[in-house]
Specification:
Blueprint lengths: L10 H19 L6 H8 L3 H7 L3 H25 L6 H17 L1 H12 L7 H4 L1 H13 L5 H32 L9 H26 L2
Helix pairs in contact: 1-2, 1-4, 2-3, 4-5, 4-6, 4-8, 5-9, 5-10, 6-9, 8-9, 9-10
Length: 216
């Protein structure tokens, strides 16, 4: 096999490309193929370079887990911030769609599943880290129109349902969809979950308005 000519990289660039190679190998061939020679070939670096940046496969796994969760946090907060100016019903539904699309993506769903199930990396802490902050943003927005306690409870439930359903869909959704002969729209959890929360919030907002109108 003809090898590509290796290009000069900074240490940071080489480390990043090795982690990208590790991610590609895991997604395409599974974690069992995460071997130093395969990584070196994929990243077009010398095996010694892989050892230089990462002392072993566990260090590569930890580096990749850190990279994935840092990027996930950034993507989630960015999606939230772009919807903040919307009215509560539009906000809740749009946030559901936006965050769902991030979490259900093959990249995040599969890598989160691998990280959580890995015997060396089976730690949910970094995945859980952005969720309270994400919930607080949703709660703060809903509290403009709902009692704070109700806003907190609904925001936590939205985050919980969204996270569980989206990651599950990303991991096994295609296989289940095929087994049940469902089309893409019918199997899109963000649609029915978003509609459910829109209806729930609509009801709660009507209740708040009704209570305020009934007060002397």
């Amino acid at each position: 096999m003809t090898r590509l000519k290796r290009k000069r990289r900074t240490p940071e660039q080489a480390r990043e490309e090795i982690l990208l190679a590790a991610e590609a190998l895991i997604l395409e061939q599974g974690p069992s193929e995460l071997k130093f020679q395969a990584l070196a070939d994929r990243a077009n670096v010398a095996v010694s370079n892989v050892y230089h940046h990462f002392g072993g496969v566990l260090e590569i796994k930890r580096g990749l887990a850190e990279k994935v969760f840092d990027e996930l946090t950034q993507d989630l907060i960015e999606a939230l911030s772009e919807e903040e100016q919307n009215e509560p019903l539009v906000f809740a539904q749009n946030v559901m769609y936006r965050l769902y699309s991030v979490l259900r993506s093959e990249r995040y769903a599969k890598l989160i599943g691998w990280i959580v199930l890995s015997t060396e990396l089976g730690d949910l802490e970094r995945f859980l880290h952005p969720l309270p902050g994400m919930t607080a943003v949703v709660s703060e927005h809903l509290a403009r129109h709902l009692p704070p306690e109700l806003a907190n409870r609904l925001a936590a439930a939205i985050t919980y349902n969204l996270s569980i359903t989206a990651i599950g869909e990303g991991l096994i959704g295609p296989a289940v969809k095929a087994a049940l002969s469902m089309d893409d729209d019918s199997a899109d959890g963000s649609r029915w979950l978003g509609n459910y929360w829109k209806q729930l919030l609509d009801h709660e907002l009507e209740e708040v308005v009704s209570r305020r109108q009934s007060q002397p």
